[in-house]
Design goal:
Blueprint lengths: L3 H15 L11 E7 L6 H5 L3 E7 L6 E10 L15 E4 L8 E6 L3 E10 L2 E13 L9 E10 L3 E20 L4 E17 L2 E14 L8 E10 L2 E15 L12 E5 L2 E2 L2 E7 L6 E6 L5 E7 L3 E5 L6 E9 L4 E8 L1
């Protein structure tokens, strides 16, 4: 069987995971990404922990295995292929095995992938859009989707691919990398591929990702990826970890990458929590509060910069306030109830 087939499908799956964004992206932005030693992490106690008010200290991961730059482009500015219809963003990702890229349709409500570019001879349009993100990012309860597409394998024919994916917020807290310390949400994204030819199963693959995202950044602060694929009873496994070294915006004066500032008072809350949003655009703001299980327990849309919430009947503990507006400025702030 042509080994190009699994290589192409594996490339597609890894690409799907590599280029997810966590805010509405700005064309021209670049991200220097570093691969670090994943085996220096304890998966059970440092990576997959769930819940609220967690701390992840990855600052000891200073040995860089490799680094490269991910680029956000206009589809028409990528000269090697014609843009896929319906796309308004092209992400060029050198970490993918075949130096491939993915086409997105992104607006201020959601992000969908619409197709993939592999090389000069292979560009694939999905049969339907594939939902990657819903904004605000904490609304992941319905963030799952599926799509199909045909991958042309030279000298073999078209391989039908069924792709499914789901994302959930599993934890929140603070992450410390070798670069800095960031407030964060920790998401888990699982993507699966099943490839077949003439109804005969060829390939089953799963990409399981743990992603740490933070306001003001349009790429994961940190990512831990575990990949497994089976092709003709042969198994392939690969685990990687990536660290965001720097984000470079095309417009140095752009306010897009300023996170939304949240002020809470009093610092220790008993009865009334006051939330002040420093929103200079005077837009409506979505407020969500997550508990220590990382579950949303409160939602509200406010049309002023101040919101007061009666929390006298809430269980005492630590909560996370998440604020998000229509331009995808967003912010996180921890509050303690006693």
């Amino acid at each position: 069987m042509n080994r190009l087939i699994p290589l192409l499908l594996i490339s597609f799956l890894k690409l799907q995971g590599q280029v997810s964004v966590n805010m509405y992206p700005e064309v021209g932005t670049q991200f220097v990404i570093e691969e670090v030693e994943y085996d220096k992490l304890n998966f059970n106690t440092e990576v997959k922990i769930k819940g609220g008010n967690k701390t992840w200290d990855f600052s000891h991961l200073t040995n860089i295995l490799t680094s490269d730059t991910v680029k956000y482009l206009k589809p028409e500015d990528f000269q090697l292929a014609k843009p896929i219809a319906g796309s308004n963003l092209f992400v060029l990702d050198p970490f993918s095995p075949n130096f491939t890229g993915i086409y997105y349709d992104v607006n201020n409500a959601e992000q969908n992938s619409v197709g993939v570019y592999v090389d000069d001879t292979i560009s694939v349009k999905f049969d339907k859009k594939f939902l990657n993100n819903i904004f605000p990012l904490t609304d992941t309860s319905n963030l799952e989707d599926q799509t199909t597409y045909n991958v042309p394998a030279p000298g073999f024919g078209n391989v039908k691919v069924e792709q499914e994916g789901r994302t959930a917020v599993e934890a929140w807290g603070e992450i410390k990398t070798s670069k800095s310390t960031y407030p964060c949400l920790r998401l888990r994204t699982v993507t699966t591929l099943q490839g077949s030819f003439a109804g005969i199963p060829l390939l089953n693959s799963t990409l399981d990702e743990y992603r740490w995202i933070s306001p003001g950044f349009d790429y994961d602060i940190f990512k831990y990826s575990a990949f497994e694929s089976e092709f003709q009873n042969e198994l392939e496994n690969d685990t990687t970890a990536y660290n965001l070294q720097v984000q470079i915006t095309s417009n140095k004066n752009s306010s897009r990458y300023k996170s939304l500032n949240i002020d809470l008072f009093p610092n220790i809350v008993h009865d009334e929590l006051n939330i002040i949003i420093n929103n200079t655009l005077n837009e409506a703001t979505d407020i969500q509060i997550l508990d220590e299980k990382a579950e949303i327990i409160y939602k509200s849309k406010i049309f002023s910069n101040n919101q007061q919430i009666n929390v006298s009947n809430w269980p005492r503990g630590v909560y996370l306030v998440v604020a998000h507006n229509s331009t995808n400025f967003w912010g996180l702030k921890k509050v303690v109830l006693q």
